[in-house]
Amino acid sequence: RKCQNFFMKPQKTYSIEEPKMEAKNIDSGLLHMDQKQDVLFQKIFGGLMTCIRKNLASEGKRGEIFHSALTNTLNSFQEVASKENKKGEDLQIYLPSMRRMAHKCPFTPVRDTITKYLKKRQLLDSSVDDKPSYFVPKNRVVPITPKDEDLRHMFEDIFVTRSRFSNLDQILGWHPSYLEAFTITTEFLMHEEGELSLYYRNYVGILSSSVHGCEYLVSLQESEFIFNHGDPAWLQGIHETPKKIQRLMPFIRLLAHRPWLLTSRDIEELVGSVDSWTIPELVQIVAIVSLFTPLCGLVFGMGIVPEIDMAKPIRLCKKQLEIKWDSETREEVQKNSSNLKKMLGASQKIKGEEGIHKASAVDICTTLGGNNRSNKSVYPRYTGEKHDRYRDFSLKNEKLHRRQDYGWRSHAYGLMTRFYQGYSPLLNQEFDVIYNLTYKKLSKTNNVDTGPFRRAVWYYVHRLYGIENDDYNYACINKYLNRRVKTFIKKCACYPQDITRYDYEIFGYDFTDDEKCHVAILVFEARRQAILVYSLKALGKYMNSK
């Protein structure tokens, strides 16, 4: 209920007498602060954030008093630090986050004032590259302060609520209606009412992101975990956590790589033993795992760059080398794009064509993700030294799951609503937004019905995870998705850590960056739905057996 009008509701204001709450809302990227430094930071910056929140309610005064408020804040910071005989040393603790705000705050006066403050004290790092993606040039991304007033207000509201406007948020700015739905659902899941405490939610997010070695998401959730008063010892490794959390890791790995193998026995191990999880808690855990494991594909697929105050992941940085197109590849891609537009223009004819209709005959690019890939974990403290990888759904050993037997809308939605009221309609709205989102264009061609292509992406991901829809003609997948496109989709859905700039640029069609982002979002949401279907189906079987 609180999230239904997330971008319309007045934000709660906090006074500086509420230090713990203010620290959470000011910045979740500051991991290393002792209690005295924490209180100092809250007292100084608390007034600024309260000022911003109050002004959100007044459309005509947005930004008018931020400049003076921030100037006074920064001066007071230096003054208080001097009185504490720290000689400004506290500033070094907050410097990374101040540098981030100088580049990534949607409020122009805030950016300008912090930049001026840092320049005056020779603390501004001119070498910082604030591009949000390794794959997309900065001039092709939505600016941090967009010209569109509604989008600018959305960016501002996200910053005020999270005290961070992330690079992922900026990339999703290409698709405002989806960004709004995604933000509402995520805020509800991670910060609103639920059975799990906030730091438990963050830790499940850490474990879920670590199975794909996604440094970006792990870093964000680790900082959130600390600010939600989680035990820092847990970040040393999963072995420092309670046994019930340690039992989650095999469950998360199964959902991430082969959710079709999940059974009611796996559920019983988590809810039917001593010191176990309750069913409502497990439902929220499933919701978090189904968010973060597929989200790794979106982060890697769009080459999201860590924010300025985050550690730079070495592995991802190696993938930003310039890609040189040869004439043969360019000609192939242009020819593919021309053919796709012609097929979409005549898409109504495919309904009457004879051909492959069953999901079992779809080419799923089985040569990807071979055994020569390293199984070494990026986060052994969470996943162990070696971890599983996705394995192709084997039609010889497994039976395809029919969506008509157990689907999201017909079955899983109701079960989730029973134990996690309020989340299901928000998530369902998010699915609807991305499934139906279209701009009626393809590359530079307008008035194109992209529905058949979008549906092909969605059902191809479901096929990769063993789900079949009797109402869909699977001939469309091989028709609309060439092998290069399938390679990108399968890596996003199954091996996100293996995505390279080559995969992004040599896409198979001459799509624009926002269209490639649209494809990556479709992959993320389709995989998310598949995880929910398998996990809630297993939970339902467990409950029926009891």
Keywords:
546 residues, mainly alpha, two-stranded parallel sheet, two-stranded antiparallel ribbon, 4 strands, globular, disordered N terminus
Q: DSSP helix count?
A: 24
Helix content: 55-70%
Task: Return residue spans where pLDDT drops below 50 for at least 5 consecutive residues.
Answer: 1-44, 56-61
| N-C termini distance | 32 Å
As an assembly, this protein is single chain
Give the strand order of the largest sheet, numbering strands 1, 2, ... along the chain. Answer: 1-4
**What global shape is seen?**
globular
- How big a fraction of the residues is strand? under 5%
Radius of gyration: 24 Å
According to DSSP, the number of beta strands is 4
Pairing-aware structural class of the strands and helices? mainly alpha
Mean pLDDT: 80
Explain what you see.
This protein has 546 residues and is mainly alpha-helical. Helix content is 56%, strand content 1%. It has helices at 19-26, 35-56, 66-83, 90-104, 108-120, 149-162, 167-172, 176-191, 198-210, 215-227, 243-246, 248-257, 264-271, 279-301, 314-317, 327-345, 380-383, 408-419, 423-436, 451-464, 475-480, 483-494, 501-505, 513-545; strands spanning 401-402, 441-442, 445-446, 467-468. The strands form two sheets. The chain has a two-stranded parallel ribbon with strand order 1-4. Strands 2-3 form a two-stranded antiparallel sheet. α3 (66-83) runs parallel beside α5, α14 (279-301) packs across α22 and α20 (451-464) crosses α24. The longest helix is centred in the last third of the chain and has 33 residues, at 513-545. Mean pLDDT is 80; it is low at 1-44 and 56-61.
